[in-house]
Amino acid sequence: MKSDKFECGDFTRENMPVQLLLAQVGHMYKWYVTKQMKDTELKAGQAGILAILQMVGPMSQRELADHIHITPPSVNVAVQKLEKLGYIRKEQDEKDQRMTRIHLTERGEKILGNMHEILRSTEDTLLKNMSTEEKILCRRLLLQMSDNLFQEKEFRDMPCKNPFKE
């Protein structure tokens, strides 16, 4: 007698749970972007650090670690690599000489321009064959899912707040 529970092999495109679809799309997206980035010398996390520096401005390694929610030693490894590649530079803080701030270099700005193009192209691939209305609906539904999660008690202690709230 067959159980009422789903087995992994029972899922089809029509009945796969939303969380599995999201995980699958996320995994495929990461793989696709990584392939697109193969000529850039960067990994996705390093590109993320550059993007944060572009959006927020110069910051200390501790502030960067807090901002992206990874350990300071992990940030240190990434910062060393990015500095070696010439995408960032360290400077002493003008107000507090004990603090070193990480700055995006001109070369870092340039590679981010390339990354933005990769992300735009990837988004075009993700959303092709969708009407304008479907694209708007897709965005609205994803934002609603994000809001739903951030409203749960498990997110109250999360060090970051919902980045999609205005």
Can you offer a commentary on this structure?
This is Salmolysin. Keywords: DNA-binding, Transcription, Transcription regulation. It is a single chain. It is globular and about 60 Å long. The mean pLDDT is 86. The protein has two domains: 40-121, Winged helix-like DNA-binding domain superfamily/Winged helix DNA-binding domain (Arc Repressor Mutant, subunit A, Orthogonal Bundle), CATH 1.10.10; 130-166. Strand 1 and strand 2 form a beta hairpin. With 166 residues, the protein is mainly alpha-helical. Helices cover 57% and strands 6% of the residues. It has six helices and two strands, in the order ααααββαα. Helix 2 crosses helix 5 and helix 3 (61-68) packs across helix 4. Strands 1-2 form a two-stranded antiparallel ribbon. The protein has helices at 18-36, 44-56, 61-68, 72-84, 106-127, 132-150; strands at 88-92, 100-104.
Quick summary of this structure?
Helix content is 57%, strand content 6%. The chain is mainly alpha-helical and 166 residues long. The chain folds into 2 domains: 40-121, Orthogonal Bundle (Arc Repressor Mutant, subunit A); 130-166.
Category by helix and strand content: mainly alpha
Strand order of the largest sheet: 1-2
CATH class of the largest domain: Mainly Alpha
**Architecture (CATH level 2) name of the largest domain:** Orthogonal Bundle
The proportion of residues in beta strands is: 5-15%
How many β-strand runs?
A: 2
Shape: globular
Compile the SSE list and pairings.
Layout: H1 18-36, H2 44-56, H3 61-68, H4 72-84, E1 88-92, E2 100-104, H5 106-127, H6 132-150
Antiparallel strand pairs: 1-2
